[in-house]
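Batch manifest line 195
LIGAND: FE2/S2 (inorganic) cluster
JOB: complex structure
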Amino acid sequence: MTRVQMTVDGQACDDDVEPRLLLVHYLRDVLGKTGTNVGCDTSNCGACTVHLDGDSVKSCTVLTVQADGAEVATIEGLAQPPTDGDATSGWHPLQKAFHAEHGLQCGYCTPGMIMSSMDLLGRNPSPSEEDVRHGLEGNLCRCTGYVNIVRSVLRAAAELRGETVGDADEGGIGEADVVSDPEHEEQLENLEVAP
Ligand code: FES
Ligand code: FES
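JOB STATUS: finished
ARTIFACT:
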């Protein structure tokens, strides 16, 4: 066993772990942070994406011991406490945008999509549709066809820039004319899903 210490979603963690334990299993099985998902055995799907010292990583490709001393952020640490009786009031703008633009169906890919999107918007506050697609090419979604996911990220980007975006039902970010992308579709066909 090896001793690891790290900060996860602002909380100090100190545990003995097997040297081969993957970070995603440490988060889920040791810390109980099951908001971070496992979607494949091949490091392709991105469902396990978290931030390691501010950069998005697929946590199934990182050993827990490699995160020793690091700051880890997961989807579970994103929302702030609600400011009123409405639980959604503390949501991160990306969480609100995925809700507003219907950027999820089953939701399995969503934690990874949001963590990758947050990294993307941190580096590029005004992404084009192409920038968003490129930034999310390591994240696969089996349900949505990506159109509403791209709209969600564009909406969050606009809102984080202080711009007002209309309701999705009235067009929302739809003027971006987002359409489906055959490359992402092909990635999906080749995806091996974890049992
Ligand atoms: S579970 Fe990590 S990339 Fe699929
Ligand atoms: S919403 Fe189901 S996998 Fe993306």
